[in-house]
Amino acid sequence: MAHLLRLCARGFNRTLARQLAEHDISFGQWVFLRLLWKQEGLTQRELSEQANLTEPTVHTALAKLEKLNIVTRRTQDGNRRKQHVYLTERGRSLQKVLEPLAVEANESGLAGLDAEDRRRLQDMLLTILGNLTREEAEAEALGLKVPPTRGFGV
């Protein structure tokens, strides 16, 4: 089951990535745009938590988005350590162009499933996600962490 879900997620991501590339936006940049379209002014740490990525990864991505004039980073309330991220006008305007591409990618993957099947699939995936989130929280409470992948020879 996990393997099938991973392959489906990979397929959705690759389909969307191809479409985004036509607009010179990477899939990684898309992740941050989606979050910022929902809420601007997030700190790099908040973006890191919401995207489930490390802060150095977020910093690098934001630097690229800044070079492309898609986001700007500013400090607030005299706190020079915390940088808040805001969309530029260009970043905001990309929403009208890019969000329909995500809808298209979803439609492509869900072709052949009627509305009831889609609703049931979504409910099932939310149940699975809830189960796994709960399991991870329980493991973390016991001090068990996901081992790093580096160092494992293949």
Automatic annotation (TrEMBL):
InterPro entries according to UniProt: ArsR-like_HTH, HTH_MarR-typ, WH-like_DNA-bd_sf, WH_DNA-bd_sf
Membrane-spanning parts: none
GO molecular function: DNA binding; DNA-binding transcription factor activity
Domain of life, source organism: Bacteria
Domain HTH marR-type: 1-130
CDD domains for this protein: HTH_ARSR
Signal peptide coordinates: none
Protein name: MarR family transcriptional regulator
Pfam families hit by this protein: MarR
Keyword annotations from UniProtKB, A to Z: DNA-binding, Transcription, Transcription regulation
Organism field: Roseovarius indicus
Gene3D superfamilies, alphabetized: Winged helix-like DNA-binding domain superfamily/Winged helix DNA-binding domain
